[in-house]
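Bug #2210: token dump truncated for DEAD-box ATP-dependent RNA helicase RhpA?
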Amino acid sequence: MRFESFSFAPEILRAISECGYQKMTPVQQQAIPAIRRGQDVLASAQTGTGKTAAFALPILQKMIDKPSETQRSNTRALILTPTRELASQIADNINDYSKHMQVSVLTIYGGVKLETQAQKIKRGVDIIVATPGRLLEHIQACNLNLSNVDFMVLDEADRMLDMGFVSDIQKVLQAVNKNSQKMLFSATFSSSVKKLANDFLDKPKLISVDKQNTTADTVSQVVYPVEQRRKRELVSELIGKKNWKQVLIFTATRDAADKLVKELNLDGIPSSVVHGEKAQGNRRRALREFKEGKVRVLVATEVAARGLDIQDLEYVVNYDLPFLAEDYVHRIGRTGRAGKSGVAISLVSREEERTLADIEKLIGKKLPRITIAGYEVGSRDLLIKHLQTRRSFAKKQNRQDNVSEQVIGERNMQGRRVKVKNSSNAKIKKSK
Ligand code: AMP
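Reproduced locally. Full output below:
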């Protein structure tokens, strides 16, 4: 179904067409008419389904249909979202969709001076996209009047609750106009999300575009079994040999992310890192360089990567599997967006097999395993046998000392350095 069938104003249709959108995605087909009718919405939709446009476009249309009766300084739409990156991304999208309208959009999140944001709020803003904690600070400092908000969106509600924002969200909701139209988007529906939806929404229209906890069909998923200590070497080899050009890699910790980036750069693969300890400016620069194709790899931790929207991202690599199986679904949602194809690769060590089993249970399918020659995972039995042989050999040689240390030393040897040609001529479609 095309956007024209929903009689959007010409300024919105023009912007949509300039974004290159032709047909509506399923969540847009269902959410747009409901929101335009004034219904509350409860949508089960994961990132990458086009959910931002699904709420932003009808909100913009309704702002045209019914211009504000109050002063311009009153905010009409409030969107709460878990991370700064996601807030920026949503604001960028809304700016794109409203570029032929007179609408101001402001992002509010931590890590930026409160006072600077307060001044911008005072000047008047139509749409606020915010993370809950910082927004609450402004509410408590009386910088913000939300009593005229007509539209309120909770985006990635499950993430916000996972990140411990529940009480902040509730306090924000108390400050918002009770008669506003409300929308809640979430990829998963835990009991706490259901409770929030119950408290927050009034007879919502239920929308579900993907079964809960399933992965998009457009993403092909594969597992490479490998020893933990050889993951770095394998990832360099895969990127180099297969000439992957835009790869998002997830690591379990900030330390691991920093180390990996260093190693990849040494291997000749231009890489950047985003994690919670990096300053906001650094994170933005890393993301920009990645989007522009100046670096081939972006290494990220779970939290930092939330909300990253990189168009046409083909490869997501789980260098370490996530602690929670649900996070696997979120991670690989970074690829295969809006119907495009993507590949999700998981490097799985022996110790991670159990987590992998949890993931497979959650997504309801077994993932194909590909063993790369030279990277076979030795079985524990083989390792023990190997140790025993060495020990008896050492005994014979009257060199009983340090045998196990030798073996362990061999296992801990740094991986080979993999020299990779820099594919600086990689053509990567620039994201908006
Ligand atoms: P979202 O789920 O909102 O993060 O959107 C995922 C990606 O899909 C973004 O890059 C959007 O720009 C893009 N997108 C949204 N709607 C459409 C559409 N109807 N056609 C093509 N791309 C879209």
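Output looks complete on our side. The chain is about 40% helix and 15% strand. Marking as cannot-reproduce; reopen if the truncation happens again.
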